[in-house]
Amino acid sequence: MELTVEDARERSRFEVSVDGNLAGFSAYHLIDDGVLALPHVEVDPAYEGRGVGSALVRESLDTIRARELRIVPICPFVQAFLERHPEYADLVHQG
């Protein structure tokens, strides 16, 4: 299974593809200078339970970190991911 995560800026979301097929997305929007809200993650039911959502969030957060941005994790899936992966806690906006 080949996973690819890309920032689809024109749609304000990160998209994950599995073997070339769109499998899910993580929506975002700018809420302040340098701060992105992450309100929703969605994975096609055909790919659930295979780590696709976690890979999507991980790659999204890595891209956000590389761009020196911060996040407000609104989505419960993102919140749970952050609880399991404290190495991303520095990305959470403290404002």
UniProtKB/TrEMBL annotation:
Gene3D superfamilies in alphabetical order: 3.40.630.30
Coiled-coil intervals, chain numbering: none
InterPro entries on file: Acyl_CoA_acyltransferase, Gcn5-rel_NAT, GNAT_dom, GNAT_YJDJ
An example molecular function term from Gene Ontology annotations: acyltransferase activity, transferring groups other than amino-acyl groups
Listed name of the protein: N-acetyltransferase
Domain N-acetyltransferase: 1-95, 6-93
Source superkingdom: Bacteria
PANTHER family the UniProt entry points to: BSR4717 PROTEIN, PROTEIN NATD1
